[in-house]
Write a structure and sequence with these properties.
Blueprint lengths: L1 E5 L4 H17 L4 E7 L4 H7 L4 E4 L11 H24 L3 E4 L5 H10 L4 E5 L6 H6 L5 E4 L13 E3 L6 H5 L2 H8 L7 E5 L6 H12 L7 E5 L5 H5 L10 E4 L5 H7 L2 E4 L3 H10 L3 E3 L9 H11 L3 E3 L7 H12 L2 H14 L4 H20 L1
Parallel strand pairs: 1-2, 1-4, 2-3, 4-5, 5-6, 6-7, 8-9, 8-11, 9-10, 11-12, 12-13
Length: about 375
C-alpha cells in the first residue's frame, strides 16, 4: 500500500501527519510513504530526519485574505503547481493521499482527486483553513479535530475524530517527569510554553511572574523558544528561584505534560489535543494573528466546558497572569473540576480512528485497481 501525506508551514500541520504515519505503520508495517511539502517550510527539515521520503513542491505561499496583486502571482503559481503535483503522483502511484493543512496540500490533493485517487483531509482547528475549505469540495473524507469545525464542511463526508497526538503523550508518567526536570511531588507544577518558537508576549509577562515565584507554592517550568531564551534570561541577574526552571526548548514535552498540574499555553490545536488527552487544566493565551483568529475559537471550546481560562493577548500583563495563577492555585477543587472537564474533551483514540479511515480508503482504491 502506497500513501502520500502532505502538510506544511507550521508544526501544527506537520506533527499530526507524522503521528498518523506512525499509527498507520503499526497497523500496516509494509506500507510505503511519501511526504510532499514545500522547499522552505519546516517540513523540509523535520520529515527527512524522521526517516520518511520527502518530495518538495515549489510554492511561494498561500493566498492573502484580501485583494493584492501578489495574489494573482500566487494563484498562477498554484495552478502550475497542480501539474507538478500530478507528476509526483504519477511517479509514486499512491493508493490514497492525505492532507493535514497548509497551502502545499492544495495542489497535491486536488491533483489526486482529479486522477480519481481517494483523498482525505484532517482539519485540526475549530475554524477551517482556506485551503481545506476549497479542498472539501473534492476530497472523499474529512476528519475534524473540533466539533465546531463540522459546520464548515459537507456533512456527508465529514467525521469528528479529534486530533491525532503522539503515543508518548499518553504513556508519560508523572514520576518520570518530576525526576527528569528535578521537581518534587509535594508541590504542583506549572508548565509554560508558547509553542516550538516561543511567544514573546507570554515570555514578557512571565518574567515578572517568575521573579515573584518564591511567593507561589508551586514549581514552574518555562519553555521560552530558542530565539527568546537569551533575552528572557538577561532579566535574571541573580540565580533563578529554586522552584523555577527556564529552558529554550523541550525535546521531551510528553514527560513535562505528564507532571503538569496547570499549563499556560497558546491555543494551537495540537497542543490543546495533548493537554486534553492528559486532562491538564490550562490558562490559554491565543495567538492573535492566527488565520481566521482560529486559536481564539480553539480556546473558547475549552473555556465553554470549564477546562480552561482564557486571557486575550491584548489584555495580557504580568499582574493579570499572576492573579489568575494565584486564584487557581488557591482553589484546588476548581483545578480538579477543570482537569475533569479537560479530560472529557480528550480524544486519545483520534490517531487510530483517522488511520482506519485512511486504510479503508486505500483498500477501496486497491480493489478498484484489481
Amino acid at each position: 500500500m502506497r500513501i502520500i501525506f502532505s502538510g506544511g508551514g507550521t508544526g501544527g500541520h506537520i506533527y499530526p501527519a507524522l503521528t498518523l504515519i506512525d499509527t498507520v505503520k503499526k497497523k500496516l508495517p509494509d506500507a510505503i510513504f511519501l511526504y510532499v511539502g514545500t522547499e522552505k517550510g519546516m517540513e523540509a527539515d523535520i520529515v527527512p530526519k524522521a526517516g520518511i521520503d520527502f518530495a518538495a513542491m515549489k510554492l511561494e505561499g498561500g493566498l492573502e485574505r484580501h485583494f493584492t496583486l501578489e495574489n494573482f502571482k500566487r494563484a498562477a503559481d498554484a495552478i502550475l503547481s497542480i501539474t507538478r503535483a500530478g507528476k509526483i503522483i504519477d511517479k509514486f502511484q499512491p493508493d490514497v493521499v492525505v492532507g493535514t493543512g497548509g497551502y502545499v496540500c492544495g495542489p497535491i490533493l486536488l491533483a489526486a482527486s482529479l486522477k480519481k485517487i481517494p483523498t482525505l483531509i484532517q482539519e485540526q482547528n475549530a475554524v477551517a483553513g482556506i485551503t481545506n475549505k476549497i479542498l472539501s469540495k473534492f476530497v472523499k473524507k474529512i476528519a475534524v479535530g473540533s466539533r465546531q469545525a463540522l459546520k464548515n464542511f459537507p456533512a456527508s463526508k465529514t467525521i469528528y475524530t479529534g486530533n491525532p497526538i503522539r503515543a508518548e503523550v499518553l504513556t508519560g508518567r508523572r514520576e518520570d517527569g518530576l525526576k527528569e526536570f528535578g521537581f518534587t511531588a509535594d508541590k504542583p507544577v506549572i508548565l509554560i510554553s508558547g509553542g516550538s518558537r516561543g511567544a514573546r508576549s507570554i515570555n514578557l509577562a512571565m518574567i515578572d511572574v517568575l521573579k515573584r515565584a518564591k511567593n507561589f507554592d508551586a514549581q514552574f517550568l518555562h519553555v521560552t523558544g530558542k530565539g527568546e531564551f537569551e533575552s528572557v534570561m538577561k532579566n535574571f541577574s541573580d540565580e533563578l528561584p529554586p522552584n523555577v526552571k527556564i529552558m529554550p526548548y523541550l525535546y521531551n514535552m510528553p514527560q513535562a505534560m505528564a507532571m503538569a498540574n496547570l499549563a499556560i499555553f497558546r491555543a494551537g490545536a495540537t497542543g490543546l489535543a495533548e493537554l486534553t488527552a492528559r486532562g491538564v487544566p490550562a490558562i490559554l493565551i491565543p495567538y492573535p494573528y492566527a488565520a481566521e483568529n482560529h486559536q481564539e475559537f480553539n480556546a473558547r471550546e475549552l473555556v465553554k466546558v470549564g477546562a480552561a481560562k482564557m486571557i486575550l493577548n491584548k489584555d495580557l500583563t504580568a499582574e493579570i497572569l499572576s492573579a489568575q495563577i494565584d486564584e487557581l492555585l488557591s482553589n484546588p477543587d476548581e483545578l480538579k473540576k477543570m482537569a475533569a472537564a479537560s479530560l472529557s474533551l480528550g480524544r486519545p483514540q483520534a490517531a487510530d480512528e483517522i488511520a482506519d479511515l485512511i486504510l479503508n480508503l486505500a483498500e477501496t482504491s486497491l480493489k478498484l485497481k484489481a
